[in-house]
Amino acid sequence: MVNNYILQNRQRFLDELTNWLRIPSISADSRFKNDVRNAASYLKEQLIAAGADHAELIETPGHPVVYAEKIVNPALPTVLVYGHYDVQPPDPLNLWISPPFEPVIRDEKIYARGACDDKGQVYMHVKALEIMNRLNVLPCNVKFMVEGEEEVGSEHLGQFVKTNRDKLKADVILISDTALISLEHPSITVGLRGLSYVEVEVTGPNRDLHSGVYGGAVANPINVLARMIAALHDEQGRVTIPGFYDRVIELTAGEREALNRAPFNLENYKNELGIDEVHGESGYTTLERTGIRPTLDVNGIWGGYTGEGAKTVLPSKAYAKISMRLVPEQDHRTITEQFTRYFISLAPKSVKVKVTPLHGGEPVVTPTHSPAFHAASAAFEEVWGKQPIPTRDGGSIPIVALFKKELGLDSVLMGFGLDSDAIHSPNEHFGLTNFFRGIETIVAFYRHYARIKQSSN
Ligand code: BES
Ligand code: MN
Ligand code: MN
Q1: CATH (residue range 2-192+363-456)
Q2: What is the pTM of this model?
Q3: Do you find a cis peptide bond into 100, omega within 30 degrees of 0?
Q4: C-beta of 195 in contact with ligand 1 (< 6 A)
């Protein structure tokens, strides 16, 4: 029945998603403020059309939150769907085969910024609601909270959650904003890394200088910054910040073995990325390096002359944006402090250093013995014909830890993307198989969740 409904409405589902993807909801860029709001309004309308009793835009000091609910019967369990309708900036634009906000389908994939992260995945939930509603098989109450600031650190969502505790009352949070191992190997994410993100500024002379007249006699802040960054890792690929690993939970041999049993082909991984060798902390596999180990990466570095041709200049300033991915029980505030102290200590007297924290978030590990996890697992088995493998993803959704802290709610990370979907990169896309199977899986989740909850009462 569900399958039939999807087949009959396939084109309409895609058209509606396409129209949503056309709206450039880039939260980081203030020039798109109206587009962000328009994307929120579009979602609100679609939620009403899908059968929500009520949907609204709730203002925050930043971009609005879209809230909707369908309360079937207060005695039934309530699922709170979280996602985000904002997207990453699309640049570099010249590397897109088709423009980021003119969605097209090629090779059974829809190409657009936000196709996978996260509009495409949020839209699966909207269509799952429509289906359950039209077919009269909605076995739970449903609430939606879809934010517009995830890609810029969910700055205002913490306060939003605190002031809307009653409204957000639920039994579990359901999130589709992560990836599967592959179409052949469905998986459920059970861990996400935390984040500490800082910007650093190194200042040398009080103005840009002639690199011939002064070069060699005055510290060049770019040269200095490069040395400082290089000093943040040792030969073993470990981060050198004192105290960085102090609170890291080491997994047992058994846990590591289980994690490494997940299907992973190193040759394919390297081929897909065009690299001859992988890299990272020695003593750990690639799955461990992204899943259970903390890391430090420069995300951007600039300064001096970067225009066409050569300009001889000894710059006054150099900058970098640095992220640290964190694992349980690292605390992002402590890590940011440790970084700041150490980074400043690395600077020679010839420069001045400023560190600005940009954002942070806690890592999470979600339960694997809860009714909701069992329901998600059963839903995957039903639709994909295979038991999903629990995985730890390297990305971050800082709000998941906050939901636990502020609402006491666990999340189920039932994502349907693929690592190859190019999220945050040019040519982001989302497979139509992922999209339609995802919708089916979500519908199955509700049925199993209601059943398991009822039998546990
Ligand atoms: N959906 C991603 C996070 C993600 C991607 C988790 C793939 C697991 C697998 C999310 O939108 C994201 O990009 N988060 C940011 C953090 C945020 C604070 C800017 C990230 O991970 O860089
Ligand atoms: Mn996302
Ligand atoms: Mn993202």
Answers
A1: 3.40.630.10
A2: 0.95
A3: no
A4: yes
